[in-house]
């Protein structure tokens, strides 16, 4: 049995896999990992023979997770890293190792699943946009604050703009209250970010077919604006499976 783990800035997503069958899955705050995983994994503990990890949390927490895995599961985890190329995808960064591994692993999963050009937008703590062409070339991307970071910034750095948390207010019309105006503005910014990504993709490779892929916890808030987008909530975990299954 294989434990796949996506250690994100805010959430730790995991799933247990036996060959291609998903046995169990879950999500918990990264601050609670890995100790809170014990409750979810206890009945499978002796069956887990491999632990695969995509992590953006830094060396200290990675080391803590490694020690936990070796102590609790008697398995040394394998961490995915950003490389020059993998499974047909060519890293577009001048310094490939600096590309966030969650973005890298997600692009690999997309390319394996779609085998065509795509725009990948992940709506997490940060929002990332990546453009990959039909031949697998990653031409670069964009990084922006996520929805909650935008809301927190307004609340912490202004005196009279304290929006309520009401994600049902997402739309592109002018707001008629302060809270609504904030959510409408965030909606417009998110759509603008996606639209710019689409323009860049079409400029780099005109007249080719492509898909729009959304991932990340806040993606469902933006999906109504892009009904043609594919929503892939476990894209990083899928990428881990592709990378490590094909490395053996």
Q: Enumerate the strands of the largest sheet in spatial order, edge to edge or round the barrel.
A: 3-2-1-4-5
What pattern of helices and strands is seen along the backbone?
A: EEEHEHEEEHEEEHHEHEH
The CATH homologous superfamily of the largest domain is named ATPase, nucleotide binding domain
The CATH class assignment of the largest domain is Alpha Beta
> Could you say which overall geometry the principal axes of the C-alpha atoms support?
globular
What's the overall average pLDDT, rounded? 93
Cα radius of gyration in angstroms: 19 Å
Count of DSSP-assigned helices: 7
Number of beta strands: 12
Strand content: 25-35%
Count of domain modules: 2
Distance between the termini: 16 Å
- The secondary structure category is alpha/beta
CATH fold naming of the largest domain: Nucleotidyltransferase, domain 5
Largest sheet: 5 strands, mixed
Looking at the overall shape, the CATH architecture of the largest domain is: 2-Layer Sandwich
Low-confidence stretches: none
Helix content: 25-40%
What does this structure look like?
By secondary structure, the chain is of the alpha/beta class. The chain folds into two domains: 2-79, ATPase, nucleotide binding domain (Nucleotidyltransferase, domain 5), CATH 3.30.420.40; 116-234, 2-Layer Sandwich (Nucleotidyltransferase, domain 5). The protein is 35% helix and 26% strand. The protein has helices at residues 37-41, 59-73, 101-114, 147-157, 178-204, 219-222, 235-245; strands spanning 2-7, 11-18, 21-29, 50-55, 78-79, 85-86, 89-90, 117-123, 126-132, 138-145, 210-215, 230-231. Strands 3-2-1-4-5 form a five-stranded mixed beta sheet. Helix 3 (101-114) packs across helix 7 (235-245). It is globular, with a radius of gyration of 19 Å.
């Amino acid at each position: 049995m294989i434990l796949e783990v996506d250690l994100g800035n805010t959430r730790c997503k995991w799933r247990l896999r036996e060959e291609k069958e998903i046995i169990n899955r879950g999500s918990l705050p990264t601050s609670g990992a890995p100790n809170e995983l014990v409750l979810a994994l206890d009945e499978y503990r002796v069956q887990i023979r491999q632990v695969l990890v995509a992590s953006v949390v830094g060396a200290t927490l990675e080391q803590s997770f490694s020690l936990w895995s070796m102590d609790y599961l008697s398995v040394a985890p394998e961490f995915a890293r950003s490389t020059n190329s993998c499974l047909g995808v060519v890293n577009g960064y001048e310094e490939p190792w600096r590309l966030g591994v969650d973005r890298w692993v997600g692009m690999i999963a997309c390319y394996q699943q779609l085998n065509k050009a795509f725009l990948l937008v992940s709506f997490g703590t940060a929002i990332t946009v990546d453009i990959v062409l039909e031949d697998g070339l990653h031409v670069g991307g964009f990084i922006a604050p996520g929805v909650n970071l935008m809301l927190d910034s307004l609340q912490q750095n202004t005196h009279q703009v304290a929006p309520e948390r009401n994600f049902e207010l997402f739309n592109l019309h002018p707001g008629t209250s302060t809270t609504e105006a904030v959510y409408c503005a965030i909606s417009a910014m998110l759509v603008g970010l996606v639209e710019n990504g689409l323009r860049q993709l079409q400029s780099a490779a005109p007249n080719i077919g492509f898909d729009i892929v959304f991932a990340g916890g806040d993606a469902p808030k933006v999906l109504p604006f892009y009904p043609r987008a594919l929503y892939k909530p476990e894209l990083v975990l899928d990428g881990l499976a592709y990378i490590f299954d094909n490395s053996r």
